[in-house]
Amino acid sequence: MKKFLKILSVMLFITITSLFMINMAYPDNALFSKFIGKGSFLDLKFAGNEDETTIEYVYPLCSSREDIRNVMMEEIYNNRNSIDIRLADRDNILSTEELFNLIDGVDSISYTVSESRQGVITEHIEFTYTDYYAYEYAFNNNDLSRMTEKQSITYAKMLEIMAEYINDSMDEYEKALVLHDYIVKNCRYNIEDLQNNNLEEDDYTAYGTLIIGESVCSGYAETYRTLLMMCGIESRTVSGKADGEAHAWNLVKINENWYHVDVTWDDPVPDTGDYVYHNYFNVTDEVISADHIWNRGRYPQAISVGDNYFVKNDLIASTTEKIEDIIDRAVAENKQEVSVLWKGEDEADLNRVFYHYYSYTLSEHSYGDEYRVYNIRFGDE
After folding, report:
1. Contact assessment for residue 332 and residue 352, using Cβ atoms and an 8 Å cutoff
2. Which of 235, 299, 343, 365 could form a disulfide with 318 if both were Cys (CB 3.0 to 4.6 A apart)?
């Protein structure tokens, strides 16, 4: 028995000594670490805990936000959903909101942060994101090898659209408008499955928008941003709320000025085929804030009106004479519809104007807090 206890004591001494030597050689070893924080998109608090967690000493070292973003982007381009990094110091620990703001198109993000006894800080970050970056990588590198099958099919469709609808003689405004109208005309907003809580993964993607022909706001925004990127037009995906519901749309940079574009809200529901609204094409912060909410600090300001749809096409009226001129011009050009931004005061005058046109359908929408847009479609009883 004594011999057994002696052997056991020697083995225990060897084990403890070995563990100590391992920790001295690899100071990041998990056996001497503590769990110091965690967070998620829904929980922005930095919580403390004493649980142990795994630490690897081979993680890339990050000493700035840009370092973290670069590591995340590399994994995103490889269609991966997590990273493990080392942080230079505690000042590099970002909150969930700060991590979320690093990259447009990230849908959700969570993290855990750990610190070894020797002070080595590591972070494990998990995230989901749109397919935009798969298309961006393929387009910029002429490399489709990292794409899924659905992404490859969608990318081929995008190239077809570019070849058919975009040419070098078009300016940025014209390209942005053509692509906006194409999406509206060729995709149906999937209101039924949304209301029945029966949406599928494809409904949130460019694959749903361009291949299946139906999606929701995330699919519209991803598709539009990707097509604009292929045109060399800078844009961003805005995550916010519209009428109190989670929503996504785009900020687009046209002629050095930023504008909001909500392709989803310019697609009539129920679907009307080729009929396109332009109520949310190149609008300002002030206009879209009437029914949209977003974190303004995260995105550039949109204050210009120079390339607004109604300004660009002389479709603003404050008198009945002007609105008659706009409608007569549309009829003379054999247009099927026309939209007018009404800044007048007497709504009764408008009724007298519209009464002169035998066959039309009329819909109206608020435009900002003060004005209204009248969408007039000719030829329908």
Report:
1. no
2. 343
Whether the pLDDT of residue 89 is over 90: the answer is: no
Tokens 């804030």 belong to residue: 289
Token pair 């000025």 in the structure block, residue: 257
Sign of CA dihedral 278, 279, 280, 281: positive
289 closest CA partner among 350, 353, 359, 368: 368
Cα–Cα dist 323/214, whole Å: 35
Distance, in Å, from the CA atom of 302 to the CA atom of 322, rounded to the nearest integer, reads 28
Describe the crossing of helices 320-332 and 347-355 by its angle, rounded to 10 degrees. Answer: 30
Nearest C-alpha neighbor of 367 from the set 241, 281, 272: 281
The model's pLDDT over 154-167, given as tens digits with 9 standing for 90+, comes to 999 999 999 999 99
Under 8 Å between Cβ of 227 and 178: no
Residue type, 172: E
d(CA 19, CA 179): 62
* Torsion sign (Cα): 25, 31, 37, 42: positive
What pLDDT was estimated at residue 47? 33
Phi and psi, residue 171, nearest 5°: -90, 180
